[in-house]
Amino acid sequence: MPRPKKTAPNRGGKMYEAKVIIGRDIDGKAIRKSFYSPLSLEDAKRKGQEYIINRKTQELTGACTPQECTFSEWAKKWLETYKKPYISENTYVDMYLLFTEKYLIPYFGNAHLINIRQADVQKFFGQIQNDLSESSLNKIKICLNGIFESAIENDLCFKNPVKHVVYSAGVEKIRKDVYTDEQIPIVKEFFRDRMPEVIVALETGMRRGEILGMMWQDIDFDGKTIKVNRSIVDKKGGGTEIRPPKWDSYRTIPISTYLCEYLRRIPRRTMYVFPTDKGKIQSPRTWSHKLTRNMARLHEEHPNVPELTAHELRHTRGTQLRRNGADIYTIQKIMGHKDINVTASVYVHDEVEITRAAAKIV
């Protein structure tokens, strides 16, 4: 039986070239790479398959090279290396992992980091902005910016295509309720002997986890201040853990004489100011369920007083500070916001009466 006729080299008369699909670009088009061999076309194809196997191994191990690293590969490594070890499990799962896996990896996936341009990122936001709130869009941008900034630091790309991206949310922002100056004393009186944490929230604007993590040593009764040094968070698998305040917002909050005297009357059973009946750390989730039940009772007794969440109690304090003439930089320090824009546009309402007073309209 005669031997099969050997195929002639298809590249310059000396080399065999095999074009292999190694991935897809942002638009789903095939990305092809050429592999060469002086021996045969089969050997060139073999090199292509070895390349694909090595790429998959890199993806599993997190290893990347500047010219070949895909968005998906680095996004996964960024999550594991830069986010997961340093934030609470809830924040990691509910924000960074969620938005990266749900929106970013499916869109940018196999595109090489160095090939993603500002126009590609702008197109991405243009496709999702009509279906998401401004808050969600901002969180997606935070994730995307972190991925590219860390990639630059690791010499995997040279520019951040996220910096100048603009978008406009198609979903209207939900307005948070706050108590009026007339309602606040009613709420304080109702919760005074039921849930003292509510009094602290209305007086300080501290976050739920920060209040539950407050220790007696954090309170300076003579100086009338509270130091925010920790926060309690619920773990996904059950139980609680102690974390730094959100965004590492360690701060000292000035408090009123009223709050000082109120806290002095609370029995000291453990190092924590607000432990459970058994002296354990309170679960933020369980505490919120208790708040919901008591808010319903409050509304039954006072139908004109709305039922607020823990975050809206905090938001009430920020709004009250502004009503009383505090500038947004002072409010930022007290509330522990990372960004002054958050203070100005998210937590503090631009109420009509505040605007009227500032403009001296009578």
Walk me through this protein's architecture.
This protein folds into three domains: 16-61, no CATH class; 71-153, Orthogonal Bundle (DNA polymerase, domain 1), CATH 1.10.150.130; 183-358, Intergrase catalytic core (hpI Integrase, Chain A, Orthogonal Bundle), CATH 1.10.443. The mean pLDDT is 87. By secondary structure, the protein is mainly alpha-helical. Strands 3-4-7 form a three-stranded antiparallel beta sheet, with no helix packed on it. The termini are far apart. Helix 2 runs antiparallel to helix 3, helix 6 (183-191) packs antiparallel against helix 7 and helix 12 (328-335) crosses helix 13. It has helices at 41-61, 71-83, 89-108, 118-128, 134-153, 183-191, 196-204, 208-212, 257-264, 284-301, 310-323, 328-335, 340-347, 352-358; strands spanning 16-24, 30-37, 219-220, 225-228, 231-234, 240-243, 251-254.
